[in-house]
């Protein structure tokens, strides 16, 4: 067969199918413009199909090894940023092709200010000044761009992408925490300017139209990997930076990792109402109940809420009340379909759980019956039924009837005072077999034949008691089989 035949056969496919094939290049790379440029040179048809992909995803990645020093690798990164910057400002039709903007501004000080490494000539500055004027930004932005400050380059481009759908941001602060102390953390320069452009949308929405079509926003803290002595949990994004996101009417998903512990507030007197928001992921966030309540009250139509609260016991000075979190969730009782919530400790300091004391964790979600649309729940035992085993409710009384999948975890197994394993290391003899209470709760629930339950996922953690864990597994799996419920039983070792 002649070499040209396969290519000819490929071009006979519909352009929609070819475009779908081209789109899969983005799966393996954050920036595939070299590949799309090569495809556009193949033939006129490929050029027509590949052109919209050339600027569909823009990726600006500054890592810990980038500095103001002129080295081949640094110069290549910086020249790419300048090229993108000028093209997107000079040619609005190309800026309108951008659907996904990925930008990383490292917490390290030298990356907030690249100095003379980024330079613009007089004609280029004229374009920049015109764009700043159109966006109704301040003279500070002109000075920042003249100085070559990366954060101003990224933020100005962000204000010029009218069809942007996905925004990925990696930034953050490195500093000490002070949960519930009321201390304010000073953001790094990149985060400060990012917050400025987001607040500009809140106060002057007609000036910053680029955010009007945003559907997905992901913000995560970036570790300072150049300093091995820095605790990775010290990298955080401030509440004030992410707060303006909840004023975006069309955003459907917000994913935030590592919100810092400083007390936060909304940027204006008007409380936001993200009526289009359906999915909210909060991962490893040091949020108190007040800040969680603010975010949930601004998200009244959530269908998917996943939250992992991180606690540094060295800094906690008050109680964390899960009852209050449950009350805040009620705003989405009419819409919530998927719920995941857990708490992690990342210090070895002891913390009171459900016991009298000056500070710690108490309360539980209790009844979720009013959440009539919930089909999936993933919670640790203490969060679902409380810290005290003896007075805990029946699962059938607290779970919604429409639930299809339940996952109960042993996330808090190693916490001092944990009762759900029926094991107290301070007692010479424990009256009940290990995991007797968990087994009884699950057996009782399945015997009630919950009408919609299809799958039950259970995790238990053991220390030298694997034989008993396997016994519990056999009991639960056998019961599930007899009532037509799929049981996924996981046994983890704490050793």
Précis, in short:
With 495 residues, this protein is an alpha/beta fold. The chain has helices spanning 4-11, 15-23, 33-40, 44-54, 72-90, 92-95, 109-112, 122-134, 139-146, 150-158, 189-203, 239-242, 289-297, 322-329, 381-385, 395-398, 436-447, 466-483, and strands at residues 57-61, 100-104, 166-171, 173-174, 216-221, 235-236, 253-257, 279-285, 304-311, 319-321, 338-345, 352-353, 360-362, 376-380, 405-409, 455-462, 486-493.
Key terms:
twelve-stranded parallel sheet; single chain; about 500 residues; disordered N terminus; three-stranded parallel sheet; alpha/beta
Overall mean pLDDT stands at 78
Coarse morphology:
elongated
Structural class estimated from helices and strands: alpha/beta
First and last CA, distance: 61 Å
SS field, number of helical segments? 18
Overall radius of gyration = 26 Å
Counting DSSP E segments of at least 2 residues, the number of strands comes to 17
Largest sheet: 12 strands, parallel
Residue share in β-strands: 15-25%
| Unreliable residue stretches | 1-6, 65-72, 107-116, 176-186, 224-230
Q: Main sheet: which strands, in order across?
A: 1-2-3-5-7-8-9-11-14-15-16-17
> What helical percentage do the residues reach?
25-40%
């Amino acid at each position: 067969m002649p070499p040209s035949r396969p290519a000819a056969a490929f071009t006979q496919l519909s352009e929609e199918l070819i475009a779908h094939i081209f789109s899969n290049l983005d799966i393996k790379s954050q920036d595939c413009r070299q590949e799309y440029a090569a495809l556009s040179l193949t033939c006129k048809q490929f050029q027509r199909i590949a052109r919209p992909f050339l600027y569909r995803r823009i990726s600006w990645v500054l890592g810990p090894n980038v500095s103001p020093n002129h080295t081949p690798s640094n110069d290549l990164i910086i020249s790419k940023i300048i090229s993108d910057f000028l093209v997107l400002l000079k040619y609005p039709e190309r800026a309108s092709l951008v659907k996904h903007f990925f930008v990383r501004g490292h917490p390290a000080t030298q990356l907030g200010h690249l100095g003379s490494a980024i330079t613009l000539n007089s004609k280029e500055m004229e374009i920049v000044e015109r764009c700043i004027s159109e966006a109704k930004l301040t003279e500070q932005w002109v000075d920042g761009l003249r100085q070559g400050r990366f954060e101003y380059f990224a933020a100005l481009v962000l204000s010029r992408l009218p069809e942007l759908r996905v925004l990925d941001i990696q930034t953050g602060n490195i500093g000490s925490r002070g949960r519930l102390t009321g201390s304010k953390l000073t953001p790094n320069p990149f985060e400060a300017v990012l917050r400025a452009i987001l607040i500009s949308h809140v106060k002057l929405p007609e000036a910053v139209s680029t955010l009007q079509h945003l559907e997905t926003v992901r913000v995560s803290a970036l570790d300072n990997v150049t300093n091995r002595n820095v605790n990775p949990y010290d990298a955080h994004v401030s509440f004030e930076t992410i707060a303006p996101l909840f004023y975006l009417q069309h955003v459907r998903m917000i994913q935030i990792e590592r919100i810092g512990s400083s007390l936060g507030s909304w940027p204006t007197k008007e409380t936001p109402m993200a009526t289009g928001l359906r999915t909210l992921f909060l991962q490893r966030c040091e949020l108190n109940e007040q800040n969680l309540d603010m975010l949930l009250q601004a998200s009244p139509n959530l269908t998917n809420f996943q939250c992992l609260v991180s606690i540094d016991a060295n800094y906690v000075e008050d109680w964390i009340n899960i009852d209050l979190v449950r009350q805040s969730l009620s705003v989405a009782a009419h819409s919530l379909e998927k719920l995941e919530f857990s708490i992690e400790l990342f210090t070895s300091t002891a913390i009171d759980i459900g016991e009298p004391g000056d500070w710690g964790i108490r309360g539980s979600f209790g009844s979720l019956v009013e959440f009539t649309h919930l089909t999936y729940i993933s919670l640790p035992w203490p969060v679902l039924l409380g810290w005290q085993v003896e007075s805990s409710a029946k699962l059938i009384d607290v779970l919604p009837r429409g639930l299809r999948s339940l996952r109960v975890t042993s996330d808090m197994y190693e916490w001092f005072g944990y009762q759900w394993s029926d094991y107290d290391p301070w007692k010479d003899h424990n009256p009940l077999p290990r995991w007797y209470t968990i087994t009884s709760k699950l057996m009782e629930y399945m015997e009630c034949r919950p009408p919609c339950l299809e799958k039950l996922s259970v995790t238990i953690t053991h220390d030298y008691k694997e034989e008993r864990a396997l016994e519990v597994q056999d009991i639960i799996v056998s019961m599930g089989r007899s009532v037509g419920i799929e049981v996924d039983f996981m046994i983890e070792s704490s050793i």
